[in-house]
Design goal:
By secondary structure, the protein is α/β, with parallel strands linked by helices. It is built from ten helices and 16 strands. It has helices at 12-17, 34-49, 65-68, 73-77, 80-84, 156-168, 188-192, 246-250, 334-344, 353-372; strands at 23-28, 52-57, 91-95, 98-105, 110-113, 119-123, 138-144, 175-181, 206-210, 217-222, 270-278, 281-289, 294-300, 313-315, 324-326, 348-350. Strands 1, 2, 3, 4, 5, 6, 7, 8, 9 and 10 form a ten-stranded mixed beta sheet that branches. Strands 15-14-11-12-13-16 form a six-stranded mixed beta sheet. Strand 7, helix 6 (156-168) and strand 8 form a beta-alpha-beta unit. The N and C termini lie far apart (59 Å).
Length: 375
């Protein structure tokens, strides 16, 4: 029996339900319609009010022509562009960071382009080049794939804020959509924006954050899985019994499978303890050496560190104490070098997969921090 036609996600309901918000964060499974609906909202704004959109990605490679030429292909193929432009245009060309509608007259072989772009593309890494340019007609900002499993730019949140400042200038009529797949629960935007409940949010729920007396509102939706709306026919390809695939088919957070402790050890086998603080999570790490093996065992620490002035702590925020080391990538003391060697040899074990995710994200952050400092 064929699957019923799925009902894809529509982000515009957030604007209708929360018209006074400035930021709309939507995350969930892949290919559920998040990007399509945000772009559709932007197209409607342009063809109803002449308001343009900004499409933001992280790297310059992401906004090259070969990667964005087909961004609006679904809106072209289903006739949405033609309908919204009232038959004037049916295609969209992406060149030099601009999305320009056009039509092709088969009889005359003539291409007719619109006089202005409907939108612009930006990458966070190169926004310094756009500071002197004005974009007064942009009222919709779409930051696509803001969640990353490969890591983030150094000071990325500030880069994003600078990008918005360049676009918004002195206006209050801009709506910002932040769209992501559930690839990583550890994201600097969550902490920087004060989205304290997002890691515990359930699919289908909407949280609204208010910021004192500023009037700022951020709406966050964990999109209902497509399975509740008929499912995607392609889900059949990913129906294996593997927890990592649930992000694709159901919107669960992607968590890798990490090695667990292969055997027990005695307290006397612990050579030293050290701790990792990352995004307000504390990990207790034990360097273990037995007669025939050595490794690091990592588990969550649910109580405060007993001796914060003496215990070795690796963190992500400047502290100033001798025993607190921001980042591990550029540390050259004996303990740090030993830890890095054991990590390189894949001799690290975890109490659970979530703990593995925290340390993985910290190590990615540490490498980027070290690189930014020339380490």
């Amino acid at each position: 029996m064929p699957l019923r036609k799925p009902k894809y996600y529509d982000i515009s309901h957030l604007v209708r339900d929360y018209p006074d918000a400035y930021y709309y964060v939507a995350f969930g499974e892949r290919s559920n319609g998040k990007t399509y609906s945000a772009l559709d909202y932007a197209l409607e704004r342009y063809y109803s009010s002449g308001e343009q959109f900004a499409y933001i990605r992280r790297f310059g490679q992401d906004i090259k022509k070969k990667n964005l030429q087909n961004l609006l292909s679904s809106h072209i193929e289903n006739g949405r562009i033609e309908k919204l432009s009232k038959g004037e245009f049916s295609l969209v060309d992406y060149t030099s960071g601009m999305f320009v509608p056009y039509s092709f007259e088969a009889d005359t072989k003539k291409i007719v382009k619109a006089q202005e772009p409907i939108g612009f593309a930006f990458d966070l890494n190169a926004m310094e080049h756009h500071k002197s340019t004005s974009y007064p007609k942009i009222t919709t900002v779409i930051f696509d794939e803001f969640l990353s499993r490969q890591g983030y730019l150094t000071n990325e949140f500030i880069l994003f804020m600078n990008t918005l400042s360049t676009i918004i200038r002195d206006r209050v009529n801009v709506k910002i959509f932040m769209i992501g797949n559930t690839v990583n629960r550890y994201c600097p935007y969550f902490q920087e924006m004060g989205l304290t409940h997002i890691k515990d949010q359930q699919p289908g729920s909407v949280d609204v954050y208010h910021y004192a007396e500023t009037g700022l509102q951020v709406v966050v939706e964990y999109c209902d899985p497509m399975a509740k709306r008929g499912g995607k026919q392609s889900d059949v390809y990913f129906a294996f019994d593997n927890p990592q695939l649930k992000m694709i088919t159901g919107g669960a957070w992607e968590i890798a499978i990490y090695p667990h402790l292969p055997k027990k050890y005695r307290p006397m086998d612990i050579v030293t303890n050290f701790f990792v603080e990352f995004e307000d999570v504390i990990l207790h790490c034990e360097l273990v050496a037995t007669d025939d093996d050595y490794y690091i065992f990592v588990h969550p620490k649910t109580t405060p560190i007993k001796d914060e002035s003496e215990d070795i702590i690796y963190g992500d925020k400047p502290n100033g104490r001798w025993n607190y080391r921001i980042g591990i990538g550029n540390q050259i003391d004996q303990l740090s070098m030993t830890i890095k060697r054991i990590i390189k040899e894949n001799r690290v074990f975890y109490s659970d997969n979530e703990t593995g995710e925290v340390l993985r994200n910290y190590l990615i952050w540490s490498v980027q921090y070290s690189s930014a400092r020339g380490g």
